[in-house]
Design goal:
globular, homodimer, alpha+beta, 2 domains, CofE-like fold, 261 residues, 3-stranded antiparallel β-sheet
Chain lengths: 261, 261
């Protein structure tokens, strides 16, 4: 049997933290914040910048004070079932198409943007709190649009094609622990279709699609950290991609093709 | 509001391909194959080597020729429902605890090792085929044990702590495309528990566990490629972890805690 591997030699991929980003404030222009940090780590054409959902939501002022929310009867009922704050449940429902699973301490919904997500991605952590810990942060209103805007502004300012991914940490069916996934993207293919390509032995691959933007989002999460590390942006360098279009909606399985909803 | 980000500066993470690995053959000692390639890319203490499931299965001779399989009545029935080869269905069932979902062209099972996996991870691609395309490859018998063995042998030979992850590409609920996950590991924490740590604003994190080994597995997949690139091993450098024990079983959600099985 021939042991010789016919592969081309792949390149290293580098995951470069953008250190010392300032805390994002409502109204911030994220492209400007990134450009300021690029002096230390200049991006190259075809790099990918992965940006944490949290700073996008902060810049877009997606804060809500739970004290301002009046729960509906439905929310009260669901809050009793799940043991959650009725005002939080009201807010979760307002961001969602439907409830996928409910149980004590668990409320998994289909978010308006299509993600299946615990608590509609609404989070208490890593945001400035009032005394009652009532401040929460919603997902960006349209994460693909947010990514496109940053992508366009950097192209305009630096003249390079910098792909953009906005990532968030989501729980999974079947497996413990959250992992980074892409909730918005611009300038790269998020789903890679390998059907018809040849494998190592010249046989044709069938039915293989790779969620490449989710893999990039997960890789960047390793550099970002989750607690107080606070590295909200990571440059990914060395990944080759020829298609320069696409957004993260390609990663969302259509409900009628999903066996777990 | 204080814009100053209190973060420490995170380090770059590098994903280094081990190029020119030979094709793995039954009986190969994978640690030896890796050691030969380490001359070009020497590992350092606390690096992580991510190894593709496929070469582990090949070295462990997990090939099966479907011509040797006799389908049971149950397999024949399930093959008719799913449109799959009855011999393949028999083999899938032999590797599985139970069927999770069935549908035309889809057979998702709970593998004996605990993964919820289409076709029990049995694959036709990237293996040498006979004329009838009847050769398939099973998952390693115990991927954590395989990882431990490689980890111990490299420690023995080089005197360094090289964590080991064996990765595979799995489909997900709710999202299109496969992504890399860890099916076996040794020498690093696979699930990171952040409960009780402080966030950026000094508030305590609740209920956050990160599937870090799955994120590492996904990152390495970006370098490996899926079709004929054939980079079956990737060194991950720069990730800090203090706990040096653990295996991939921590990533498998217990069936009684899983709402999607």
């Amino acid at each position: 049997m021939n042991r010789k591997n016919p592969n081309k030699r792949n390149r290293e991929i580098r995951l470069l933290p953008l250190n010392d980003m300032p805390m994002a404030l409502p109204g911030d222009n994220l492209a400007e914040l990134l450009l300021a940090r690029f002096q230390e780590t200049p991006p190259k054409d075809n790099d990918i910048i992965v940006i944490a959902q949290k700073i996008v939501s902060k810049a877009e002022n997606r804060y809500v004070n739970l004290a301002d929310i009046r729960p509906s009867d439905d929310a009260m009922q669901l809050a009793a079932e799940t043991g959650k704050d009725p005002r939080l449940v009201e807010l979760i429902l307002s961001q969602s198409k439907r409830v996928v699973r409910r149980r004590r301490d668990v409320l998994i919904v289909e978010h308006e943007l299509g993600f299946v997500h615990a608590n509609a991605g609404i989070d208490h952590s890593n945001i400035p709190q009032n005394d009652n810990r009532e401040m929460v942060l919603l997902l960006p209103e349209d994460a693909n649009a947010s990514a496109r805007e940053i992508h366009a502004e950097i192209k305009n300012r630096l003249g390079i094609h910098l792909a953009v991914i906005i990532n968030d940490s989501l729980g999974r069916a079947w497996r413990n622990g959250v992992t980074g996934i892409a909730i918005g993207a611009a300038g790269l293919p998020c789903l890679l279709n390998l059907c018809g390509e040849k494998d190592l032995y010249g046989n044709t691959l069938r039915a293989t699609e790779v969620g490449i933007a989710d893999e990039i989002a997960a890789a960047a999460s390793l550099v970002m950290g989750q607690a107080a590390q606070g590295i909200p942006a990571v440059l990914v360098r060395g990944l080759e991609f020829s298609d320069r279009t696409g957004d993260a909606s390609a990663l969302i399985r259509a409900p009628d093709k999903d066996l777990f909803r």
